UniProtKB/TrEMBL annotation:
UniProt organism field: Meinhardsimonia xiamenensis
Protein name: Predicted phosphoribosyltransferase
Keywords for the protein's UniProt record, in alphabetical order: Glycosyltransferase, Transferase
Ranges for domain Phosphoribosyltransferase: 13-179
Gene3D superfamilies: 3.40.50.2020, PRTase-like (3.30.1310.20)
Example GO molecular function: glycosyltransferase activity
């Protein structure tokens, strides 16, 4: 089993693949922190695109916080994405979850301020959005993120990851216009097994990587057809 040396190498390989997938319409790269940021930075650099964060916080069921009934996703219009079937099954309404939503929004605000200071989210309407993480396992968090991005009226949504299992990719494919995954191992056990160096990305590394690039898009692309 060939493994990526680290997240940066995975990002460089992903960047070359995505450049070949072009052309891109005023692209924006959105990374799920923390591990998605070092993968996304080479992609943003290669495409001449701004790099922003896509912050997601799970909303757990009352008394069972590990059971996700929804998620709050960061962006210009922060919003909750719900599993309405599960809410109905538990006899809950969206209004019942208002306190949990408020807590999730506060956590997102704190993380965005930590990583980006006062910088506003990059607008995505009418642009090609590329959503990146360092890998996907079950896809629950990514599913919420993609649904929220789609509601912001981008020109297109591309999911790009170094590694993921085939069944998860099959479930996510209807949510995107393009899906790029470098490795689809069988059997799949864990994302970290496909990296030689999978140490945790620190807050300081995230801030440094975000500070390296421009805050707005529209630069001439440095790759793609």
């Amino acid at each position: 089993m060939k493994r990526f040396a680290d997240r940066e190498e995975a990002g460089q390989l992903l960047a070359e693949r995505l450049a070949a997938e072009g052309p891109w319409n005023d692209p924006v790269v959105l990374a799920l922190p923390r591990g998605g940021v070092p993968v996304a930075r080479p992609v943003a650099d290669r495409l001449g695109a701004p790099l922003d964060l896509l912050l997601v916080r799970k909303i757990g069921a009352p008394g069972n916080p590990e059971l996700a009934v929804g998620a709050v996703v960061d962006g210009t219009d922060r919003e909750a994405v719900w599993n309405d079937d599960l809410l109905r099954l538990m006899g809950l309404s969206r209004e019942d979850m208002a306190p949990a939503v408020a807590r999730a929004l506060a956590e997102i605000e704190e993380r965005r301020r930590l990583y980006l200071g006062d910088r506003a989210p990059v607008p995505v309407e009418g642009r090609d959005v590329i959503v990146i993480d360092d890998g996907i396992a079950t896809g629950a968090t990514m599913r919420a993120a993609l649904r929220a991005v789609r509601r912001r009226n981008p020109a297109s949504v591309t999911l790009a990851v170094p590694v993921a299992p085939a069944d998860t990719l099959h479930e996510l494919r209807p949510l995107v216009d393009r899906l790029v995954c470098l490795a689809v191992p069988e059997p799949f056990h864990a994302v970290g097994l496909h990296y030689e160096d999978f140490r945790q990305t620190t807050d300081e590394e995230v801030r440094a990587l975000l500070a390296r690039g421009p805050e707005i898009g529209g630069q001439e692309q440095k790759g793609g057809a």
